[in-house]
């Protein structure tokens, strides 16, 4: 019983405990239901979220694809960005360029502008398949026409001062203006050849008149001076001459070189007492011709040559075809009438354009010698059109110089001068002038040969005892006349040696050999009538001594020249033979007296 009671008691206590906890259990139950409901809601939310996440994942994939597509398109755009930018930059005509061509006068800013414009013109032609380039073609063509029109007026206006006055310094205009705007004329050559041809013809006509007028006046002035100093050929047997006898005039021989005395200025013709030897007159003409003709050719080659368009990497406005210090064209050139009388065309001043002695080095961008024949032909034609009247004046003046025929030494001096000028012209690459001077030299050499033949003939006739010579001189000889002939021969020989730098020159020394042979015969003939053998040999020895004294002058070039040494040896041998005859005859006579 006790156990049952104990068990019932424990059961009652448990029942009371659970009844006491019933509310908590109800609350717990409610919380469990609430949690279950929350879990159901969470499950539903997670299910929905999973569906949304799948949708977002699909959208992200789509965005990634779009992003890749956009990135590829961006790379493609970047690849064509520079070419497209270059295309637009090339074919577009900046407003500043158009304004410069349309609204401003030609000047220094045009140099860079026209270079840029021509580059764009060429690119428009290359890009002709591009519609934008075709659309701009009409605009560019209009600007080209305007530029060509303005440049034509500009270049023709530059020639106006030369047309109105021959005293305008043309070389200054060439170096400081024409060469400066060379690129503008090159634009006309390539983009408007008809306009370039018109400018070229205008320049050619203006320069032709300029040089023709200046040289006409200068040649006339030289003609006046020559008329005051007539000098004609006298035979070697002539007794006329200076009071002191024939002598070697080294001052006149100096005219055979380019270096030396200043040229004759045209205003000197005003002084009616001013005289110059014929060599100085011809030298002045040739040096003035050389400097002006070669300078003009150099300018023509630099300015009128044709060249393809090749713009420099950096546009430069300084076109230095001629450096400021170059001596190609001097600003001192001109036909100056400052010293002339009113209305006179005789006293025009022509100065040499190269400054100093006229052979400084020239810095020319386009050397004619480096051009081929086809490239030089049109330049030569322009030069000939300009200088033809000048060459005719010079040709006529040379004919005047040879009439009457000058003496042999002055003529050889002029020949050597011509050869020196030819050498200098060859250095300056002026082939047309070189050809003209070659022709002139060929004209002088036959005249020299004729003079030497006349000297030989007159000496031969005198030695043969003819009644009269070529120059109508008496054939009789005296000691004084033979000594005078010997002195004239010595002066001629020494002059020829001074003027000859080569050891062998047939034209010179073959004629001197002929003269020597005739002179030897003349001395023998002059003394043959002397009956006393000792007196005859003494007279011959005296004549040979005169020759030896003249040949043994103290000039180094004469002493060292092989021909001088041979000449001295020849006459020394003759003199020694005469002395031996004197000694031999004297000994024979002493033996005979014994």
UniProtKB/TrEMBL annotation:
Residues 262-305, 381-538 form the Vps52 C-terminal domain. GO terms for molecular function: syntaxin binding. Its main location: Golgi. The keyword Transport applies. GO terms for cellular component: cytosol; GARP complex. Belongs to the VPS52 family. This is Vacuolar sorting protein. It comes from Suillus placidus.
